[in-house]
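ligand=zinc ion
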Amino acid sequence: MNDPKLKCEVCGQPALGVCSSAFGAISHAYCQECLTEGREVWSTLVGGLAGVGGPADLVDWAKPRIAATCAFYKKTEAQLWQEIDQLMKDYDAYWMRQPKEQDSGSQ
Ligand SMILES: [Zn+2]
């Protein structure tokens, strides 16, 4: 599979193909360099690590991929965890705004 129009979703270079992310049930187009380096699409990294807890809870295979992705996007791992924390807060706030089942008036 080598579609010349397919672009890597990390860096925008011509992609080798589409494959599963290591950080969630999602697929992206990646180029050879990003696959070799273990770079991930930023939003997939943030979303995939939501709920993990923190850096101390990471499995070893994830660490070099996280470092490579942060380096590519010129972000620190502290910034990554801040974004994950904000995502979790936004997620909680979203669900707190939803009407409770007994408030729906559907009975
Ligand atoms: Zn790439």
